[in-house]
Amino acid sequence: MTTLTSTTDxxxxxxxxxxxxxxxxxTAPEWLxxxxxxxxxxxxxxxxxxxxxxxxxxxTAQLRAERDDVLVAIDEEGGDVTRLxxxxxxxxxxxxxxxxxxxxxxTRAVAHELGRRLAACGxxxxxxxxxxxxxxxxxxxxxxxxxxxxxxLVARHxxxxxxxxxxxGVAACTKHFPGHGDTAVDSHHALxxxxxxxxxxHARELVPFRAAIAAGSKSVMSAxxxxxxxxxxxxxxxxxxxLTGLLREELGYQGLIVTDAVxxxxxASTYGIERGSVLAVAAGADALCVGGGLDDDSTxxxxxxxxxxxxxxxxxxxxxxxxxxxxxxxxxxxxxEARGAVxxxxxxxxxxxxxxxxxxTGIASDIGLVAARRAVKxxxxxxxxxxxxxxxxxxxxxxxxxAVGDETPWGLAAELTRLVPGTGTDTYDGESEAPAEAxxxxxxxxxxxxxxxxxxxxxWMTEALxxxxxxxxxxxxxxxxxxxxEPRGALHIATHGAARVCxxxxxxxxxxx
Length: 513
Prior knowledge:
By secondary structure, the chain is α/β, with parallel strands linked by helices. It has helices at residues 9-17, 30-38, 53-66, 95-101, 104-120, 151-167, 198-214, 240-250, 265-268, 273-283, 297-313, 318-338, 366-375, 413-419, 435-443, 459-471, 500-511, and strands spanning 19-21, 42-45, 71-74, 125-126, 171-177, 219-222, 256-258, 288-290, 377-380, 391-396, 424-428, 447-452, 476-479, 491-494. Helix content is 40%, strand content 12%. The N and C termini lie far apart (62 Å).
């Protein structure tokens, strides 16, 4: 086993400090605790590490027994991307729903309550919010994770989210700099390229990041995207022009810069994770996210040793690595201090959004359902008669992107079945043979509720809707992705996200409750 030596102790500790690795299991493995004791300053959590809030709190306590100020990070955006509630679906709507409501006090309150839950479990760094402007309707990886397509709307909600989250004592990580919203490629699979000029980048992509910096975002996550207008050769994560020149020098950002996961194919298949990690730190990154797919001690040692070797060879200045490690430790110190200085959220902007009002149960967690209900847009386009009996839910399901994952349930069938006993459901995907015909047979005389997710991006889904509506014009259509097409169906419901509470809000409308 590789161990520390006296001649490389300081550099090696700094190399460990800049890593944010993941691991497998619901308790901390021995190797991880040993690395924390040796200088590892951060740990990343994923859905595989979480079963219950109590278990998560015990896990983070394990880590803090080794190092009191360890950063425990998580990718908890709420909405479609949840790790806290990976098995049941989120109690909070995601960014697009909050942007659709466009009430910054509501966004601030939702982020604060989410942060409060994270802090209660011992999590102190959240890889959120997404500040990407979803300007490309075909974007396969951002979509409902964005507050919207208007840069200024995205900016004001990004700032509100950062403020709410950090008021709960959890550091925000605004992502994906300098903006992942105009991509047609998922960087988990390949390297996206954005061919726009500098004027467009400043007027669109950078607007929310300026707002996040002004709001005091404690960290910013880089994107694995190529922007030739800024750097024609290297993706943002590896680009000195983008991380140091643009983010540090031009925008004046002094907080922690975190990379997106270095094992994503945009980096791993073009540079390799060791080489990519060295280039990222040299370019100005302070912390390396790794562990969504690589989650063992050997990965940590490979990256640690690659950084140490780069310092010894002169490729990576020792001062740059030391500066990166110092920024990690400074954020860890802030989170420790923030535990005892948590501020209360601002007053809610409208009835029913604040804990303790007559419109809620007085429980802060109500805020997620309240927000989801406010985000729903209902359009009546035909004979939208109320349900008179059990319905049939046909869920047309696309392949989930890696950020969302396929283990988190979505839709509204469970809630509608609870509200309307006897309601049935089936799931159809792009491989299903004649999904509309199959749904019509299964539905029988029951009213059909067709649930889709980004129908505009999936031709098979649109064709299935065409066939359903031709045969059954009274079909209810629920769009749980980014609404693009004209509302269709006798009743069209846009939830602006597929979180559990979004499905609950839609089911309540369909059931007339």
